[in-house]
Amino acid sequence: MISSNSFQFDRLKCLRQWLYREVKIAKYSSVLDIGAGDLRISAEIADHIKHKVHALDMVKPPVVPNNVVFVKGKAEKLLSDREKFDVITASFFYFWIKDLPSLLGKAKKVLKKDGILMFLSEPQFSERVDTPDSGLNSEFKKGLKKMGANPNIEKALKESLAKAGFKATFFRTNEKVVIERKDEIMEEIEFLFRNGAINQKQRDLITKKELSYESKEVFVPIVYGYATPN
């Protein structure tokens, strides 16, 4: 279970496909994907709706797919009521937002009256369990808090959606993930180190322990669903 969504695109594909069918996304023509990252999900949605998807992120990726219109900037600043969308989507995004009610209020303004806001995958890191645990679990949780992330996003998202005037439907995963590829765990460790959440000594110690495991299980519930304006 990685801190970014770099390993989650394939892992959570079935979840996203189910959610697309649940909201009948194919019938819509205008979608805004916020916190769009590498744009793979934006392009995936564009394939479903057969229209270009507008993607918003602070960093422009090296490649922008032909079926994606990229806009650079912070969602909090660029959301306006100048353009209306049928659907707004986001993945591994809301748990980084400090003022969720404000952001969701702005998102509501750019949704059409019968529009849908989709939260495709938000990690509930407060419930994370690593087996075996090298110490990465506690350092990961502490590091996320230090960086301003909300480890209990399910509660925050439910409360914030209601405050912003949405009626929401929530689901969550409950499966453990068996991780055998060391590069996934190494990416988590490097993520913490690059952002100052752990020092060199902690990095080396955790890395040594992780490399000694043949595999490990990680449990992190993924919260997903959709909401409509009241």
The proportion of residues in beta strands is 25-35%
Q: The CATH topology of one domain is what?
A: Rossmann fold
By secondary-structure content and strand pairing, the structural class works out as: alpha/beta
Give the helix tally: 9
- Characterize the largest beta sheet: strand count, sense, and whether it forms a barrel: 7 strands, mixed
Helix content: 25-40%
CATH architectural name of one domain? 3-Layer(aba) Sandwich
N-end to C-end Cα span: 34 Å
Mean pLDDT: 92
Shape: globular
Query: Unreliable stretches, pLDDT < 50, 5 or more residues?
Result: none
**Looking across the biggest beta sheet, what order are the strands in?**
3-2-1-4-5-10-7
Classified in CATH, the superfamily of one domain is Vaccinia Virus protein VP39
Give a description of the structure.
The chain has 230 residues and is α/β, with parallel strands linked by helices. It has a domain of 155 residues: Rossmann fold (3-Layer(aba) Sandwich), CATH 3.40.50.150. 38% of the residues lie in helices and 26% in strands. The protein is built from 9 helices and 10 strands. The strands form 2 sheets. Strands 3-2-1-4-5-10-7 form a 7-stranded mixed beta sheet, sandwiched between helices. Strands 6-9-8 form a 3-stranded antiparallel beta sheet, with helices on one face. Helix 8 runs antiparallel to helix 9. It starts with 7 loop residues before the first helix and ends with a strand. The model has no long low-confidence stretch (mean pLDDT 92).
